[in-house]
Amino acid sequence: MLTDIIRAVILGIVEGVTEFLPVSSTGHLLLAERFFNLGEGNFWKSFAVLIQLGAILAILALYFVKLWRIALGMFSDPAARRFVIGVLVAFLPAAVIGAAFGGYIKHFLFNPWVVCFSLIVGGAILLWVDQLDLKPRYHDATAFPLLTYFYIGCAQCTAMIPGVSRSGASIVAAMLLGTDKRSAAEFSFFLAIPTMLGAFVYDLYKNRADMTADNITIVAIGFVVSFITAIIVVKTFLNYVTRHGFELFAWWRVIVGTLGLIALALGM
């Protein structure tokens, strides 16, 4: 039991740190499973999805006032209603493609080789975008054009490939479509709510037979750790990227991906 608790804490930290950074939480969890014998087995694969709820609640806690105001005004305030529609429009592509091809993607693409190559390619793209002389036209994540929300949602679908990064794909797309760094990052947080909540509900239902009393305790530990870690990371991340951009995260991806490929080539 103690070993499982330690695993839950470590994976909870990995999830909380990486979920909202453009570095791929799924990719890091898969590499942790491969190289450090963390999270092997069906339950631990479900665990990695279920503890995402902790990260979701971190966003709800940090943006509670704004989201509560939007929820209250959804039927009376055109701007609030338009933002809710925008989030749903952005969520729709991932929901459709995930339902249609989710099993295929997990079967063929969820392996450490794909993760490492995706980390490196994604890092190169982040470096490229960070150095572009972009002229932001949109500075409020709740007021993008509806077509912009849709295109961001389409870009998010590439994150079904492990190592790509859901937040990274949506942030890059948003910036190329004219948003500033902070609002791009904030919208990636908001878009995570329906995306990750849908994955949580689906995985919980599919693996409900594995939810014994002991397993529920382990999930709860990972959930709390990911919640606390995500709150710290999100608050720090927004201030950091506003001032410094994404270069640090791009190089982190490249270094982790390269080290992973070397380890795989050596038979580890």
From TrEMBL:
Its main location: membrane. Keywords: Antibiotic resistance, Cell membrane, Cell shape, Cell wall biogenesis/degradation, Hydrolase, Membrane, Peptidoglycan synthesis, Transmembrane, Transmembrane helix. It is an enzyme of class 3 (hydrolase). Its EC number is 3.6.1.27. InterPro entries: UppP (IPR003824). It holds the Pfam family BacA. One of its GO terms (molecular function) is undecaprenyl-diphosphatase activity. The keyword Transmembrane applies. It comes from the Bacteria. It is found in: Cell membrane. Catalyzes the dephosphorylation of undecaprenyl diphosphate (UPP). Confers resistance to bacitracin. HAMAP family: Undec_diphosphatase (MF_01006). Bacitracin is thought to be involved in the inhibition of peptidoglycan synthesis by sequestering undecaprenyl diphosphate, thereby reducing the pool of lipid carrier available. This is Undecaprenyl-diphosphatase. The gene is uppP.
